[in-house]
Design goal:
Elements: E1 4-7, E2 22-28, E3 37-43, E4 51-54, H1 59-64, E5 67-70, E6 73-77, H2 86-107, E7 108-111, E8 128-131, E9 134-138, E10 146-147, E11 150-151, E12 161-163, E13 171-172, E14 187-192, E15 204-214, E16 220-227, H3 239-254, E17 284-285, E18 290-291, E19 298-308, E20 311-320, H4 323-333, E21 341-342, H5 358-361, E22 369-370, H6 378-386, E23 390-392, H7 408-411, H8 415-423, E24 443-444, E25 446-447, E26 454-457, E27 459-461, E28 487-489, E29 500-502, E30 504-507, E31 510-514, E32 539-544, E33 550-552, E34 557-560, E35 562-563, E36 565-573, E37 576-581, E38 584-588, E39 594-601, E40 604-611, H9 615-625, H10 651-660, E41 662-665
Parallel strand pairs: 1-6, 4-15, 6-14, 9-12, 14-16, 24-35, 34-41
Antiparallel strand pairs: 2-3, 2-15, 3-22, 5-7, 7-23, 8-9, 10-11, 12-13, 15-16, 17-18, 19-20, 20-21, 25-26, 26-29, 27-28, 30-31, 32-36, 32-40, 33-34, 33-40, 36-37, 37-38, 39-40
Helix pairs in contact: 2-3, 4-6
């Protein structure tokens, strides 16, 4: 079902005097300078700031319905959206919001809302009375009801119901009228585009909110998102990240929130957390100022021997332990002992407890910082099912490769223990998915696991020793003994565990291009394309050999101090992987095969080599769709010839080259 947009032009909308459920996504550039982290700061509202008890239908009728209606999300635009420049408005209105909404409309189903939704008016006091299933304010309602920065239109509001301070003389306030309400929707999402104060915090892109919950099963039915105009990028290579950010924010409003855990229901619609008899709500957590969930939703787990540099510490973590989530994480990691899905324990109130733990789930889109290739996995869909409000269409789940089938040692122990065990002489195994190569000159890149990007190990030296529980090395290659405590990954939310990550090239602190292979905009300038790379929709990352690439003429030779991997076109045909370099095709016959490249371009002979990956890494899915398969590895037939160009120089040219003209070049675009 396509997103349905109702455009509302209004003037004079104010800003709410209370903080609704805020989820902030921002771009942060860490000390390393090359790795961009999109950080999410989901500030939960205080308990009294959300409007509860919107009566739509009786609870006994709602519980009888199957959870089979694809969720219908109505978009309502504030007039600020139309003040965006034409390019940004077109992107937001015609691409980002419709696609994000359409994704969740296909991924989630609810019990159908059959009656008209009319939202409650905000009361002057946080104390209310409930009479005949309806919420009544004391004496009066506020003249304006806000949802985030957006004024809720009168058409969407119910009448103002009031009682006196003793709960008597209850009824509809004089002159109050109900609006027509919202038909044919299960959730209304108010959208604004204001450059608010929050937008200046860490280059915030967007933040989201839920603001009202219905009475029968406590499901959120209204929310808000503000898009920060100054941070919206229309660059094609940033479209995927922007789209994922908006999906992320919508999901916080729909249910993935610390302020909603206590309201989750079981498969029969019964509360997972007991309710107080006097309020009908879960008990209040005074410290967090939100309702407290029970241990059958989130459980405190203690790891008494968490290995760190020089020994062990005790580590306490919070885990989602609802049935579907527990089953999914046990299956994903192949760890039947795993108690549940670990929640983030770092960041401010807006990050901790309301995202998946970055160390464990890296590029899952609902972690607290987006670093690369965000995916919405079965684990996130399982959480939405365990709210009791939704069922999930698991065909919409995206593959999460991080940690898959790596077992309990990966999911339940520190990355320090994983790295130490795998790198021991007796093991002889890779420390994947972590790494221990410090970013330094010369810059030697790698490929991400899915070969979608050129990447670097994000292990960097920090200015201060890391906290003991985040010291993940006893020794690091090429790092002086005693300095290990200063080294860790650039992503703090991943417990400073270092891993392979895509990055950006910058000039004068301006992003020139990224390292993701699929975007044509990331192609290097022809004068700097020493390794003859080609970025585009049908490109993948391939490793170079350990030798630097060279460019030669008869009078000059130069090497570039950046090599290790690059993006190239490929095709899957006749059971083989074929790599295409500068329109020449090179067939891979077995994994590890080295393909020598000698190609003349723009008067220079480019010399280097590529390493063939296993055919299945690149072609398996494509072949499977065509009912084909990768052929077994075999030696390259003697009759096979690959294209090679040669320089034809005079003896004088060779003499001149040999004495003085060998140049080492460092790419000036890398900001360290």
């Amino acid at each position: 079902m396509a997103a349905r947009v109702r455009l509302k032009m209004r003037r004079g909308t104010g800003v709410s005097s209370f903080a609704v459920l805020l989820s902030v996504c921002a771009v942060l550039v860490p000390a390393s300078g090359m790795f961009e982290h999109r950080h999410c700061d989901h500030q939960h509202p205080r308990a009294h700031e959300i409007i509860h008890g919107v009566h739509i239908e009786p609870v006994h009728e709602v519980k009888k319905r199957s959870i089979s209606q694809p969720v219908r999300i109505l978009l309502s635009y504030d007039e600020s959206v139309f003040r965006l420049d034409d390019e940004k408005l077109d992107l937001i209105n015609n691409t980002i919001l419709p696609e994000a909404v359409h994704f969740w409309e296909r991924a989630l189903m609810v019990r159908e809302t059959k009656n008209t939704i009319r939202l409650n008016r905000k009361c002057e006091s946080s104390q209310v009375f409930v009479k005949d299933h309806h919420t009544h304010c004391i004496d009066t309602c506020r003249p304006v009801t806000m949802c985030g920065e957006v004024r809720v239109p009168e058409d969407h509001l119910d009448v103002c119901r009031t009682c006196n301070a003793t709960g008597h003389n209850c009824g509809i306030a004089e002159g109050s009228k109900a609006g027509p309400g919202i038909d044919g929707a299960d959730f209304v999402f108010y959208v604004s585009a204001m450059q608010t104060e929050r937008c200046h915090k860490g280059l915030t892109v967007a933040y989201a909110a839920h603001c009202q919950q219905e009475a029968a099963l406590d499901r959120p039915i209204a929310g808000h998102a503000n898009l920060c105009p100054g941070s919206i990028s229309t660059k094609p290579q940033e479209l995927e990240t922007l789209l994922s950010t908006v999906k992320h924010e919508i999901l916080h409003a729909l249910g993935f929130s610390v302020s909603l855990y206590a309201f989750y229901r079981d498969e029969n619609g019964e509360p997972r957390t007991p309710r107080r008899s006097d309020t009908g709500k879960p008990p209040l957590n005074e410290k967090l100022q939100t309702h407290q969930w029970s241990e059958n939703t989130i459980k405190t787990v203690v790891r008494p021997r968490w290995q760190v540099h020089g020994g062990y510490v005790e580590r306490t973590m919070q885990m989602i332990v609802t049935p579907r989530v527990r089953a999914e994480v046990q299956a994903h990691f192949n760890c039947p002992e795993l108690e549940g899905a670990e929640l983030e324990d770092q960041g401010e109130d807006g990050t901790a407890l309301t995202h998946w733990e970055k160390r464990v789930f890296e590029n899952e889109a609902m972690t607290g910082t987006h670093t690369q290739n965000p995916v919405y996995s079965r684990i996130t869909l399982a959480l939405m099912e365990d709210t009791g409000w939704y069922s999930a269409n698991y065909s919409m789940a995206q593959e999460l490769g991080w940690g898959k089938n790596l077992g309990c040692n990966f999911a339940m122990k520190s990355c320090k223990e994983w790295i130490s065990t795998k790198s021991s002489p007796l093991s002889g195994k890779s420390i994947h998915p972590f790494c221990n190569k410090v970013k330094q000159d010369p810059l030697q890149t790698e490929c991400t696991d899915d070969r979608s990007s050129v990447a670097l190990c994000n292990l960097v030296k920090h200015s201060q020793p890391l906290p003991k529980k985040y010291q993940n090395f006893d020794s690091i290659p090429h790092v002086r003994a005693g300095e290990e405590q200063y080294y860790g990954g650039s992503v703090s939310l991943a417990d400073y565990c270092p891993y392979i990550q895509e990055f950006t090239w910058r000039a004068r602190n301006i992003v020139v291009r990224g390292s993701h292979c699929l975007y044509e905009e990331n192609n290097p300038h022809p004068d700097k394309n020493f390794a003859l790379e080609k970025y585009g929709p049908h490109s993948r990352c391939f490793d170079h050999t350990n030798d630097m690439w060279e460019e030669r003429t008869c009078k000059q030779a130069r090497q570039w101090q950046h090599w290790g991997s690059g993006c190239y076109l490929y095709k899957c045909e006749v059971g083989r992987l074929h790599i295409i370099v500068n329109n020449y095709t090179y067939t891979c016959y077995h994994a590890g095969q080295e393909i020598i490249i000698r190609i003349m371009q723009n008067g220079w002979l480019h010399k280097g080599a590529l390493i063939c990956p296993p055919c299945r890494d690149i072609c398996q899915a494509e072949f499977k769709a065509r009912n084909e398969w990768c052929k077994p590895g075999d030696e390259r037939p003697l009759s096979t010839t690959y294209h090679k160009d040669y320089l034809h120089c005079s003896s004088a040219d060779n003499f001149n080259l040999s004495i003085s003209m060998f140049i080492i070049l460092i790419l000036p675009l890398v900001v360290r």
